[in-house]
Amino acid sequence: MKIEKSDLLLYAVTDRGCLKGKSLEEAVEEAILGGVTCVQMREKKASEEEMIEEAQKLLKICHKYNVPLIINDDYNVALKSGADGVHVGIEDAPVAEIRRIAGENFIIGATAKTVEQARLAESSGADYLGVGAVFPSPTKTNAIRITPQQLTEICGCVNIPAVAIGGITAENVHEIKGCGHSGIAVVSAVFGAYDVKAAAEQLCRAVRDTF
């Protein structure tokens, strides 16, 4: 599977810590039914075996709706579980190394906070960028902020699509209108909602108004 620009409209990153009494599987399915177009599984405290098992459960749900499943950071878990790809941060394994190991049909997303990082990720074989934090993030309180102008510059300097990430809500997403992003990535704005499906629907409507 290769990622399409349309797959990045509403990119949801999982966080067990903000679920309101639902299982992760229930929340992911509700999110997809509400319009989520890509799911990233982020598990910071699980073992590799636990992550593979969870990824395989989520993969069944995601593929039921033709939604890609991306694994945060760990490309070995992604490959062993059969997930569609991995998203790596600046301090994780180099994109070029992952591409060499995983092949062309494996999705690789990369974090970029500068034009230089974005260009390096693209030239190394990344399929898309995650750019941010565009607002203060409740899940990454130490995240480096970027301005709407910087977001525009980063999105405009590469030919691969980019998602804006970091503290985005349906109420503030209008502040990045016209910045060149292909979509938004959110965590608590979807998975922290009591009604996950309704939250995803609201975010879908809001992000479409920013193009």
UniProtKB/TrEMBL annotation:
**Keyword field contains Zinc:** no
The protein in question is named: Thiamine-phosphate synthase
Q: Gene3D superfamilies per the record?
A: Aldolase class I
Q: Name the coenzymes or cofactors required.
A: Mg(2+)
Known role: Condenses 4-methyl-5-(beta-hydroxyethyl)thiazole monophosphate (THZ-P) and 2-methyl-4-amino-5-hydroxymethyl pyrimidine pyrophosphate (HMP-PP) to form thiamine monophosphate (TMP).
Q: Which domain of life is it from?
A: Bacteria
The Gene Ontology CC terms held by the record are: cytoplasm
Gene name of the encoded protein: thiE
Q: Where is the Thiamine phosphate synthase/TenI domain?
A: 10-190
Q: What class of enzyme is it?
A: transferase
Q: Which of UniProt's keywords are assigned here?
A: Magnesium, Metal-binding, Thiamine biosynthesis, Transferase
Which terms in the Gene Ontology molecular function aspect does this entry carry? magnesium ion binding; thiamine-phosphate diphosphorylase activity
Q: In which pathway does it act?
A: Cofactor biosynthesis; thiamine diphosphate biosynthesis; thiamine phosphate from 4-amino-2-methyl-5-diphosphomethylpyrimidine and 4-methyl-5-(2-phosphoethyl)-thiazole: step 1/1
Q: InterPro entries attached here? A: Aldolase_TIM, ThiamineP_synth_sf, ThiamineP_synth_TenI, TMP_synthase
Q: Where does 2-[(2R,5Z)-2-carboxy-4-methylthiazol-5(2H)-ylidene]ethyl phosphate bind?
A: S137, P138, T139, G167, V187, S188
This protein's record includes keyword Metal-binding: yes
